[in-house]
Design brief:
Layout: E1 5-9, E2 13-14, H1 21-39, E3 43-51, H2 55-64, H3 68-85, E4 92-95, H4 99-114, E5 118-128, E6 133-135, E7 153-162, H5 168-177, E8 182-183, H6 185-196, E9 202-203, E10 205-206, E11 214-215, E12 218-223, H7 225-230, H8 232-235, H9 243-249, E13 254-258, H10 262-276, E14 284-287, E15 291-292, E16 295-296, H11 308-314, E17 327-328, E18 337-338, H12 348-358, H13 364-368
Parallel strand pairs: 1-3, 1-13, 2-3, 3-4, 8-14, 13-14
Antiparallel strand pairs: 5-6, 5-7, 7-9, 10-12, 11-12, 15-16, 17-18
Helix pairs in contact: 1-12, 2-3, 4-10, 5-6
Length: 393
């Protein structure tokens, strides 16, 4: 393995409905960054996958006349099938229903509990099933979820609580010491303002449904979907199963996500890790939304565009590098070239910096996806063939 490594993740996509263009976009941007780092000769681990637990999935399965497992298998496969259609170079595809993920999630729970940050009490309050988030009364907007605008439900049940309030100071200190922890700055400022407003302890288990990972030593409870889902990033890195692999790949360098789940990744997730005594990810990169008729493209609202039509339309071009970055290449050009338009995504500076630093030709096979060697093929511009796959430049 090379001295330098790079671990990038997409969010794991929720399977209450089929994939849409927004999922394809996030995956392609992450793929562009992963390919750029491979071209620099770095060892890269690129993870994507599906989030398959929770009340919303259980209800969607009931509506479809299927068991939750049958429903999860069918929808997860559609997300998995999209990956090769996009010619994405991910190294792993994780599902939260896999045994390895159950083991990792339960190990994280045990560590957090052993350190004294979990306790049992009764939860009463508003819950948004669409976004799987608890919504304080003060944050309701006209009685609806402030994130998605859907109706919320009042729930009252026994629950384990995570002592999130204990981490306000440590999280603020981390933000001050690491100003690039969350980008862009507007999202960082939102998270700092949220922290400065004070934190309440977080309900992290449910008893009113069963489709989830059982809490260790208390199977009447299943884990709150975000405690379960966020752990996937460590599961794939070997947490709780392969310590050598985990030490190699953790912490992640970049969590690439949509702006609607920044709080979960930039407050809940680092707090869980602090409670377990584990390293924090280096950066959370948030991008904006794809809009349809001025509104966020959403499976719940049904205003989505499926990516397959565009994949078929653009298949002849085979452009495998995100054209929203400052450089792109298709199969036919002799070398990757700088795009003429100004970069529009947050990952563009990283990709452009990679291209600027290399300033050399690279293998068409790598750009087109046929050459998978994670090495810097072109050591000098004078070379005429790729040293790994022998493709011409």
């Amino acid at each position: 393995m090379s001295a330098r490594r790079f671990y990038i993740t997409t969010p794991i996509y929720y399977i209450n409905a089929e994939p849409h263009l927004g999922h394809a976009y996030t995956t392609i941007v992450a793929d562009a960054a992963a390919r750029a780092h491979r071209l620099l000769g770095e060892s890269v681990f690129f993870l994507t996958g599906t989030d398959e637990h929770g009340q919303k999935v259980e209800r969607a399965a009931q509506k479809a006349g299927l068991s939750p497992k049958q429903f999860a298998d069918s929808i997860a496969q559609k997300f998995r099938d999209l990956v090769p259609l996009l010619n994405v170079s991910n190294d792993d595809f994780i599902r939260t229903t896999e045994p390895r993920h159950y083991a990792a999630s339960q190990e994280l729970w045990r560590r957090v509990k052993a350190n004294g940050f979990l306790y049992k009490d009764k939860y009463e309050g508003w819950y948004c099933t669409v976004d799987e988030v608890f919504v304080p009364e003060t944050q309701l907007q006209d009685g609806r979820c402030p994130i998605c605008g859907n109706a919320v439900e009042w729930i009252a049940e026994e629950s384990y609580f995570f002592k999130l309030s204990a981490f306000q100071g440590r999280l603020l200190e981390h933000y001050r010491a690491n100003p690039e922890f969350v980008v862009p700055a507007v999202r960082r400022n939102e998270m700092v303002a949220f922290l400065e407003g004070g934190l309440e302890d977080l309900s992290v288990s449910r008893t009113s449904f069963k489709w989830g990972i059982p809490v260790p030593d208390d199977p009447a409870h299943v884990m709150y979907v975000w405690f379960d889902a966020l752990t996937n990033y460590m599961t794939a890195a070997g947490f709780g199963q392969d310590q050598g692999r985990f030490e190699t790949w953790w912490p992640a360098d970049v969590h690439l996500i949509g702006k609607e789940i920044v709080r979960q990744h930039a407050i809940y997730w680092p707090a869980f890790l602090m409670a377990a005594g584990l390293p924090l990810p280096r950066q959370v990169v948030s991008h904006g939304w794809w809009l349809m008729d001025g509104a966020k493209m959403s499976k719940s609202k049904g205003n989505v565009v499926r990516p397959h039509e565009y994949i078929d339309r653009l298949a002849s071009t085979r452009c495998d590098i995100s054209c929203s970055a400052r450089w792109c290449s298709a199969r036919t050009p002799a070398s990757a070239t700088r795009a003429s338009s100004r970069a529009t995504t947050l990952t563009s500076p990283m990709i452009w910096a990679t291209w600027s630093a290399a300033r050399r030709r690279w293998c068409i096979g790598t750009v087109a996806g046929s050459c998978r060697r994670p090495t810097r093929h072109w050591q000098a511009a004078s070379r005429s063939r790729c040293s790994a796959c022998r493709s011409r430049a």
